[in-house]
TrEMBL record:
Protein name according to UniProt: Cupin-like domain-containing protein
JmjC domain location: 94-252
PANTHER family to which the protein is assigned, alphabetical: HYPOXIA-INDUCIBLE FACTOR 1 ALPHA INHIBITOR-RELATED, HYPOXIA-INDUCIBLE FACTOR 1-ALPHA INHIBITOR
InterPro entries associated with the record: Cupin_8, JmjC_dom
Organism for this UniProt entry: Chryseobacterium profundimaris
Amino acid sequence: MILGNVDVVTDISKEDFQNNYFKKHKPLLIKNFASRWDAFDQWNFDFIREKAGGQEVPLYDNKPADATKSSDAPVTHMKMEDYIDTIRTKPSDLRIFFYIITDRLPELLKNFTYPDLGMKFFKRLPTLFFGGSEAHVLMHYDVDLGDFLHIHFEGKKRILLFDQKQSAYLYKVPLSVHTIYEVNYENPDYEKFPALKYAQGYEIFMEHGDALFIPGGFWHFNRYLEPGFSMSLRALPNKPVVFANMLYHVFIMRYTDKLLRKLFKVKWVNYKQKWAYEKSSRALAKHGG
Ligand SMILES: O=C(O)CCC(=O)C(=O)O
Ligand SMILES: [Fe+2]
């Protein structure tokens, strides 16, 4: 893999952001972004524990969801306070995925502001993600294809980003938003997955308060290096082509995949993997590999 750095700023004007990052679909790291909020000192585990400690939360771990099942059932449930105590005191791969602030902790809405960067934020869906020091989120891109700001709190996090043109080098599985699960992007096995050598992307390290602009449709692999949590602020696609592609992803691709999975079960899953591998081999062949 060929990993570069993203541009890093501490502040940016709307014009600069629009012209050099947003319109060009180029990721950007804004250091210390959240420190501009009046309530920045409340963005920590203690605050969440105090306000939402009694809530039961669904938890996931590092294992991929069972591809032959249609629902992504959580591995367990815990009270938020027990979950936070667990990840703070011992190594854990337990994660909270897509905790919708508007529904579950609306009080948090007054503790941040949306930046004026010319992004049309979808204010119904600010979401939180949590992870222990062993947690990672498998390579995927988001079906809604929207641009988003990913703001991180507490311990460090490492993120790998790739644009859609890299899909074949990453071993994308057809009719899905993920890649072959056996591919390890942290310790690539080039013998088994040779196309990976040509995958070109970005490596980003995030610290407390940093914000990462992730352009719509970008692949992301997120690794919690220490216990932490993040908030994603999404914008819906505003270009007709991207919007149409989003409708395809949400309404057609997912159901076609579900139906084929129902009909053919593990056969379909294996067929997709083979197909993914062959597509990547063809991409590799272009490099004479
Ligand atoms: O970092 C995480 O836990 C997942 C975040 C993510 O995939 C997203 O915001 O789209
Ligand atoms: Fe995501």
